[in-house]
Amino acid sequence: MMPVMSLYERLKETYGHQNWWPADSPFEMMAGAILVQNTNWNNVGKALARLQPDLSPERIRAMTDEELEERIRPSGFFRMKAQRLRAFLEWFESHGDDVRALQQVETDVLREELLQVKGIGAETADSILLYALYRPVFVIDAYTHRIMNRIGYQFPKKYNQAQAFFEEALPKDEALYNDFHAQFVRHAKEHCKKKPVCEGCPLEPECEKQI
């Protein structure tokens, strides 16, 4: 079985550094982490574009429910996501709408607070911690499970156990976790799709094709 670090190196050699998450500010990234739930990034990009130039906590709070829902409609489940954005903004306001204030809070405390926000689960919370606040937490998503299971790892089903699998196998490095997760996303879109494209896959020599 390929060591986990070798898996990352193979993907990076194939796709290059991914420069993920695509956002102009930490707040845009955090909003995107909520909007991307149950959809793809193309739809999120459309929703974020419709929020511009009002993509700030103050301006979103000032919107009516109807206006916010219409702005984020391309992301799908727009009524539910509007309420989740508002719940997140309430939490963000408790920290003064200040990313610098969040930087002073310990990772475990922030994670627990985020998980108490309605509509924010482990994947969303960890995405915010990793990509907006630069904390070394490994994000697990459906792509991670798909790839790891197909190539033959005995990969845990539970989120916290899957996360520990990577964090115990890798150096505790925010930049590494950032790019590794992004490599999984890229590979799942290029080759390890629901209907896989095995020809040309950089992991094909080691893959057990557990499809």
Number of strands: 0
CATH architecture of the largest domain: Orthogonal Bundle
What is the percentage of strand-forming residues? under 5%
How far apart, in Å, are the first and last alpha carbons? 17 Å
The domain tally reads: 2
The major sheet is characterized as: none
CATH topology heading of the largest domain: Endonuclease III, domain 1
Return the CATH class of the largest domain.
Mainly Alpha
Instruction: Briefly note the structural class of the backbone.
Output: mainly alpha
Notable traits:
iron, catalytic activity, metal-binding, Endonuclease III, domain 1, HhH_base_excis_C, 4Fe-4S, mainly alpha, 211 residues
Could you explain how this protein is built, in words?
The structure is a single chain. The chain is mainly alpha-helical and 211 residues long. It has two domains: 4-19 and 138-190, no CATH class; 26-132, Endonuclease III, domain 1 (Orthogonal Bundle), CATH 1.10.340. Helix content is 59%, strand content 0%. The chain has helices at residues 4-15, 26-35, 41-51, 57-62, 65-71, 78-93, 99-102, 107-115, 122-132, 142-151, 159-169, 174-190. Helix 1 crosses helix 12 (174-190), helix 5 (65-71) packs across helix 6 and helix 10 (142-151) crosses helix 12 (174-190). The longest helix is centred in the last third of the chain and has 17 residues, at 174-190. It is globular.
Summarize the structure.
By secondary structure, the chain is mainly alpha-helical. The chain has helices at 4-15, 26-35, 41-51, 57-62, 65-71, 78-93, 99-102, 107-115, 122-132, 142-151, 159-169, 174-190.
